[in-house]
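TICKET: design request
STATUS: open
ATTACHED STRUCTURE:
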């Protein structure tokens, strides 16, 4: 191995250990919130262990009762058997209570982590979702937290009782015969060395396994959401190859993780067998020499077996904990993602917005080395209808994202009613904006719930009126349960046009002071579009409106048309004014006009 590879491997190992320690510390902090339950669990574990370890003492006494020379002490034997039965019953009850409390602690901790992770999702900037795969994020919140849950639960149920059993048996063995106990103690470190050696390698493999599982989830999610496109372009074979490639890597990591974890138990069992054999030999010599009775030797052998057993269980727990820690790290990485910039302490509420929008010397880019919007200036008066046109990638949707504060300008200001948008609470600002995008989104639930998504307290009459204004009432009433029909994720079996009408109805119900329509009628048939455009015209009266459109014939009535190119507003004016200038807008409009003529479509001037 080359020196630089050795150094790289060493640094990776050091980083891995540091990450493990940090993750374990955070897990303990989460568990520490339930310290009372943890204390009760430890107390029950101690009582269970004490009773379990008391039984071998009683068993030794029972043996001595039946091997006394010339007689059997039946009275003493029955008394000991009663004590054994009582200890066994109490031990079982305490163990059941301990497991119940451990489950409670685990699910409380897991619930806390999952809530924190989901809440962080709500706080993350839109830029995070632009750069991270959805499936991987979902995998962290669902699969990784489930794996974390299994590891923590096993840790509580076996780790604590295992440690207490080791300490308890060690105490009893020392009280019976310190010499034989010393033999056990001297051989014990071998188990820790073996388990520790394997655990370091197991963590790395489990971390890679979790990352690869997230990648596989992301790819599967991507294909399912775009299955029509995959089939249309006959890319099924390519998808199979990519899936098999990722799945093969997952298989390799899983096998390596399983291999390392599976050799832990046999290795510690081998060490434990050596300990048991050493105890048996040294104990036999002590019994022959009269230093220990046969009953006490029986107890000691039982303790030696119980002493070594937890090492096997703990080695299994360590393996699960490695997986849990690796999964927990991925979840904590999500929780640690930088949230949206905090609101200023004096952030204002935007109430009864007039809809005046001023953009002053605004600069923005998604990637620093690729500028998009540079020195943009714009003044929109109350109630103006502003259309935004331009070629793909010119910055139309970016401008909408900035108005909604999904992103903030790098330089310059966006003012709403004369106030910098950064000084307005995001929730308050968005409450005054209504938006219908080309890409529709509906949640699983009834049609009524989807229309009332922005106004949950709306009455049935308001919902129906909004649906009628959006020309959606007709197809809704033809559905099995009308407005109470349950639709699946993203609209289920509804057509794209029907889904878009529901999104428009959602906007009609809220009636905000500022409207944003981004190709809002792109999926609607021509006849319905004419009706919806008429409804929009009524809705826009007295409201500031931003309309992003590719079909220029739909925006001729706008008060102002902004022509964008390469992130800048290159032309600005009414439809007639821009045509008279014979500039970029004129070229766009005439190209669409010519295309429409070629298709035999009559366009009214």
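STATUS: resolved
RESOLUTION: sequence designed for all positions
ATTACHED SEQUENCE:
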């Amino acid at each position: 191995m080359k020196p630089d590879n050795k150094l790289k491997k060493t640094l990776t190992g050091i980083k891995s250990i540091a990450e493990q320690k940090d993750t374990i510390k955070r897990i303990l902090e989460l568990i520490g919130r339930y310290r009372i339950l943890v204390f009760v669990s430890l107390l029950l574990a101690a009582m269970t262990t004490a009773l379990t370890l008391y039984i071998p003492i009683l068993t030794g006494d029972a043996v001595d009762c039946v091997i006394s020379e010339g007689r059997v002490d039946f009275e003493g034997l029955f008394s000991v058997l009663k004590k054994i039965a009582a200890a066994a019953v109490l031990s079982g009850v305490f163990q059941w209570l301990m497991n119940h409390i451990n489950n409670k602690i685990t699910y409380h901790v897991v619930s806390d982590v999952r809530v924190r992770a989901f809440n962080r999702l709500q706080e993350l900037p839109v830029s995070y979702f632009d750069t991270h795969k959805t499936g991987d994020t979902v995998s962290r919140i669902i699969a990784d937290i489930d794996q974390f849950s299994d590891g923590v639960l096993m840790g509580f149920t076996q780790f604590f009782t295992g440690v207490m059993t080791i300490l308890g048996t060690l105490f009893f063995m020392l009280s019976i015969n310190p010499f034989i106990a010393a033999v056990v103690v001297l051989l014990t470190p071998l188990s820790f060395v073996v388990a520790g050696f394997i655990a370091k390698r197991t963590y790395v493999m489990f971390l890679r396994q979790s990352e690869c599982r997230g990648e596989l989830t992301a790819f599967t999610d991507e294909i399912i959401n775009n299955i029509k496109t995959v089939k249309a372009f006959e890319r099924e074979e390519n998808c199979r190859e990519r899936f098999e490639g990722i799945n093969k890597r997952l298989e390799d990591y899983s096998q390596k993780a399983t291999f390392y974890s599976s050799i832990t138990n046999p290795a510690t069992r081998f060490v434990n067998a050596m300990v048991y054999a050493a105890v048996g030999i040294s104990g036999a010599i002590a019994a022959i020499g009269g230093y220990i009775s046969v009953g006490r030797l029986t107890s000691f052998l039982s303790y030696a077996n119980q002493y070594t057993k937890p090492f096997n269980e703990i080695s299994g727990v360590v393996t699960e904990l490695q997986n849990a820690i690796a999964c927990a790290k991925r979840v904590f990485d999500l929780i640690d993602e930088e949230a949206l910039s905090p609101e200023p302490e004096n952030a204002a509420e935007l109430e009864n917005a007039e809809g005046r929008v001023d953009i002053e010397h605004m600069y923005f880019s998604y990637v620093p080395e690729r500028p998009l919007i540079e020195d943009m200036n714009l003044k929109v008066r109350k109630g103006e209808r502003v259309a935004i046109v331009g070629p793909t990638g010119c910055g139309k949707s970016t401008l909408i994202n900035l108005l909604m504060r999904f992103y903030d300008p790098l330089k310059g200001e966006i003012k709403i009613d004369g106030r910098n948008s950064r000084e307005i609470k995001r929730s308050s600002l968005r409450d005054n904006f209504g938006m219908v995008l080309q890409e529709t989104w509906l949640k699983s639930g009834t049609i009524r719930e989807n229309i009332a998504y922005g106004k949950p307290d709306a009455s049935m009459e308001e919902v129906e009126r909004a649906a009628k204004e959006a020309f959606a009432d007709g197809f809704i009433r033809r559905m099995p349960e009308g407005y109470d029909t349950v639709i699946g994720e993203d609209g289920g079996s509804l057509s794209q046009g029907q889904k878009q009408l529901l999104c428009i109805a959602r906007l009609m119900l809220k009636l905000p002071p500022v409207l944003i329509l981004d190709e809002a009628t792109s999926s609607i048939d021509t006849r319905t579009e004419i009706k919806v455009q008429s409804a929009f015209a009524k809705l826009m009266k007295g409201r500031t409106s931003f309309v992003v459109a590719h079909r220029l014939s739909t925006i001729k009535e706008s008060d102002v048309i902004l022509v964008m190119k390469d992130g800048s507003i290159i032309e600005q004016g009414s439809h007639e004014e821009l045509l008279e200038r014979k500039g970029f807008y004129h070229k766009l409009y005439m190209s669409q006009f010519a295309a429409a003529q070629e298709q035999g479509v009559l366009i009214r001037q």
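CLOSING REMARK: The first strand starts at residue 357 and ends at 364. The mean pLDDT is 78.
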